[in-house]
């Protein structure tokens, strides 16, 4: 199903999350996010304050990357990072699950890691990134169940840093497992309007894309109305 561009931008979180991104890059992120009115923008934590100040009078949220991109930090470090970004004024928090613990079947440690971050952000939306492209189907189902029980608002397919993209089959498995009990965000290698529409029809309500992909997707949507 086609998505109108005005609805589409309210589903897209745009990001510049590479270590080489400069202040000039971030200023372009700010300008483009305002121009297209994307719902949320992400940058690496050193630029979070800049985004908060830039969007304080806008209907645009600032996303906080927590444990990005590996998810392997000590839980207390994730908590400190989340609390610091909360105090700065970030609106939503995308944390990376500890993938190694999940694959080791240390499910209790995975759950406590998520819950510790969830508790510190005092009710603001939490999205948990599971890096679906690194998981077997069984591991992905286990990840979904843990996130569903954590209090998080969203489960998210990937960081965008993986060498493999999010695939339709990942979304299909996740949607079938969560059955609408938690929201689904797709990210990682989503670069065209057609793929986005297919995933939306499968139950994805938010998308994480690079700034360049976000602009391309919206402009393609405008041409196809």
Query: How many separate helices?
Result: 10
Quick one: overall form? globular
How much helix is in the residues?
A: 40-55%
Q: Residue-averaged pLDDT, rounded?
A: 97
Strand residue percentage? 15-25%
Low-pLDDT runs: none
Order of neighbouring strands in the sheet with most strands: 1-2-3-4-5-6-7-8
3D structure, described in words:
Strands 1-2-3-4-5-6-7-8 form an eight-stranded parallel β-barrel, surrounded by eight helices. The chain is 46% helix and 16% strand. The protein contains ten helices and eight strands. It has a single domain (5-223), classed as Alpha-Beta Barrel (TIM Barrel). The chain is globular, with a radius of gyration of 16 Å.
Set out the fold topology.
Layout: H1 5-8, E1 12-16, H2 23-36, E2 40-43, H3 48-54, E3 61-66, H4 75-88, E4 92-96, H5 99-103, H6 107-120, E5 126-129, H7 137-148, E6 154-156, H8 168-178, E7 183-187, H9 193-201, E8 206-210, H10 211-223
Parallel strand pairs: 1-2, 1-8, 2-3, 3-4, 4-5, 5-6, 6-7, 7-8
Helix pairs in contact: 4-6, 7-8
Main features:
TIM Barrel, 225 residues, alpha/beta, eight-stranded parallel barrel, 16% strand, 10 helices, 8 strands, single chain
What's the quick description here?
The chain is of the alpha/beta class.
